[in-house]
Design goal:
The chain is mostly helical. It is built from 19 helices and 4 strands. It is globular, with a radius of gyration of 22 Å. The two termini are about 25 Å apart.
Length: about 475
């Protein structure tokens, strides 16, 4: 497990990588945690540092966004042995281990913060509820992704199988691997606590971003440079907790509760909305930013473009066209998502995803001039719509049809034919089709296939669902010392 020396070594890094001028950061590299956590600012800095850890190549800065989950579902042309599901190949095992370690590093950071919050009261700090709610929500979110990656297939008895450890304290002690049921219980407990703590999240009043140039809009009581209020769209906010709870209940096949939390997000129309035609002006907002319930801020977003354009993350142009325009998926070349793709004029040509491309200015003061933010999408509103549509399939397929059509129309597609209104099976296929269109370059399609134990659809042939395909191996050390025997 990760020791205090590691965490203390990171504190200086956080001072260097905090987002712009959001925090008045003083390097704490030589300061003991007891000293650091004397003030509320220390808690806020540690929390910001936890988000910074997620930008690593081994985490969402590459791997969990465009990396091995996307290679497994064959989004990209062959880039590694993940394409052939050879997870024990040494290079593939090293990549899996690096992701495992990086997410648990972030969890250790969160646990250090939460440990120092023990014994504190809400009256001790101005933003106690926000800090603790974010920390608990983020700890649950990261454990959920680890479970969805490395845990068992949950359908057909998987809930009782050993899955992953749930780390709740900052400690060098080994945490034994728990069953999926136990892990989900702890995830839900943390999310339930975060849900209560974040009930008055400023995002509900001020939205995802605060306009620093419009102080009068918010009144003298609000300091718009304060991180607790500003930039709620890049933090584990109240609605991100709701959406994560919906993911948990979808895994548990508790569709009533999945709908409860999904609807909270969908109904927050003053905060989020599906992409609109006005986003499609001269400069297209390729990130569909208004849909992001939560996105990690990534200062070096240009790295994503470099990976996608020059490091083998190419796609088959015919495959892209098939995904977006196939008649069985009721597709069209008018789909706004077709703008995510660029085909070079070189010979031979190549096609790559430009969802993360940012237009850079030139000259001595080069800076990002694209009018949308440097974000890695963590939860998107369209996914919440898809979960709600799926959760309605059995009892109210006509509502599934309506929800799915809301997303389709927002993407400049026609509504699905009314003949599908009562056909739950056909509607599930269309939900799967929309996942394939929406999730490219965001790392989410693997989770959908695994949760439903569905065959992976590719251009060549369908890859049969199997435990070997979906259950990624835990690191060797975890198997040896984490009591992972079945």
């Amino acid at each position: 497990m990760i020791g205090k020396r590691y965490i203390l070594g990171l504190i200086s890094l956080f001072a260097l990588t905090a987002c712009g001028d959001w925090l008045d950061v003083t390097p704490y590299g030589q300061v003991e945690p007891d000293k650091m956590f004397e003030e509320e600012k220390g808690f806020m800095q540690m929390l910001t540092g936890s988000y910074t850890l997620l930008n690593s190549d081994a985490a969402y800065g590459r791997e969990l966004t465009i990396g091995f989950p996307e290679e497994i579902v064959h989004y990209w042309q062959k880039t590694s042995e993940f394409h052939a599901f050879r997870y024990t190949d040494q290079e593939m095992a090293d990549r899996l281990d690096a992701t495992w370690l990086q997410l648990y590093k972030a969890i250790a950071n969160i646990n250090l913060l939460l440990g120092y919050m023990d014994g504190k009261e809400a009256s001790d700090y101005e933003y106690y509820n926000l800090i603790k709610g974010e920390a608990l929500g983020l700890r649950a979110y990261l454990h959920l992704d680890l479970l969805r990656l490395f845990g068992p297939v949950l359908k057909n008895g998987g809930m009782d199988k050993k899955a992953i450890p749930y780390h709740e304290t900052f400690s060098n002690q080994i945490v034994q691997v728990m069953t999926a049921t136990e892990v989900l219980g702890k995830i839900q407990r943390d999310l339930d606590s975060a849900y209560v703590l974040l009930k008055n999240d400023p995002i509900q009043i001020y939205g995802r971003w605060v306009d620093k140039d419009d102080q009068s809009k918010y009144g003298d009581a609000m300091n718009v440079t304060d991180l607790a209020f500003n930039f709620r769209g890049i933090r584990m906010n109240y609605y991100a907790v709701c959406a994560t709870l919906a993911r948990v209940y979808m895994l548990k096949e508790d569709y009533t509760n999945a709908l409860r939390y999904a609807n909270e997000v969908i109904e927050a129309t003053d905060v989020f909305s599906l992409v609109k035609r006005e986003d499609w002006g001269v400069t297209k907002n390729l990130m569909f930013e208004r849909e992001l319930i939560w996105g990690v801020y990534y200062q070096e977003i240009k790295n994503m473009s470099r990976y996608l354009g020059f490091a083998g993350y190419e796609v088959d142009k015919d495959y892209v066209n098939d995904v977006y325009t196939n008649a069985s998926a009721y597709g069209s070349v008018e789909d706004y998502r077709m703008a995510w793709w660029t085909t070079t004029s070189t010979t031979p040509s190549s096609t790559y995803l430009n969802k993360y491309v940012r237009t850079m200015s030139t000259g001595a003061n080069s800076s990002d001039i694209t009018p949308w933010e440097k974000l890695l999408p963590m939860i998107r509103l369209s996914e919440v719509y898809y979960m709600a549509a799926e959760a309605n399939l059995s009892a109210r397929p006509e509502e599934s049809w309506r929800l799915l059509n809301e997303v389709r129309v927002s993407r400049n597609l026609s509504a699905l034919p009314e003949s599908l209104k009562g056909d739950a099976g056909a509607l599930l296929e269309q939900i799967a089709n929309e996942y394939r269109k929406d999730c490219w370059g965001e790392g989410k399609l693997f989770y959908f296939y695994k949760r439903l134990f569905r065959n992976i659809v590719t251009r060549e042939e369908n890859i049969p669902a199997s435990l070997e395909l979906f259950e990624l191996p835990l690191p060797k050390d975890e198997n040896e010392f984490g009591n992972n025997a079945q």
